[in-house]
Amino acid sequence: MKNPEYAEALRDVIGAVMEQTAFLFPEPADLEEGITFDEFELVSATLRFSGDREGEMALVVPVGLCHELSANILGEEISDEINRDKCADAAKEMLNIITGQMLTRLFGDGALFNLSAPVCTELAREEFFAALENREFVCFRIDTYPVIATFQLTTGNYVDKGANS
Predict the structure, then answer these.
(1) This prediction's pTM
(2) Strand ranges (E), 3-156
(3) pLDDT tens readout for residues 90-100
(4) How far is CA 95 from the centre of its chain?
(5) What CATH code is assigned to 4-153?
(6) How far is the C-alpha of 11 from the C-alpha of 105, rounded, in Å?
């Protein structure tokens, strides 16, 4: 990660949100030291934000972990049957919470942001991993599952054009 402040914030925020919201305990992992995503079906949740700063956050999570997230968030037992809609909703909800806390941590309580609705899709692996070089990212393991979170600020300042423009 290029910006140590963003890396530390991402690690801290993701750890706190996962622990407090889903009772899961992420451990930092190094993508360059053998962590692999090959054996997992992955989903990518993305969310754009604008306001005092503009950018995007993404969370790449194995479907199996989304299933566990869903059960933990909803207070349900983990079943053998995976409900893909619940899995996507769990990934989006986690990303929404993480983004809000990340922006508050980096830019303070007074910063104003508009968050888009999170979107969850199957991960286009080649495109995603090629794009990592241009993004701030951290990698985790939650149990046996690898997770990547990305944070990207776009250049330039946001200009509110208002309703009258």
Answers:
(1) 0.85
(2) 27-29, 42-51, 55-62, 113-115, 119-122, 136-142, 145-153
(3) 999 999 999 99
(4) 4
(5) 3.40.1550.10
(6) 12
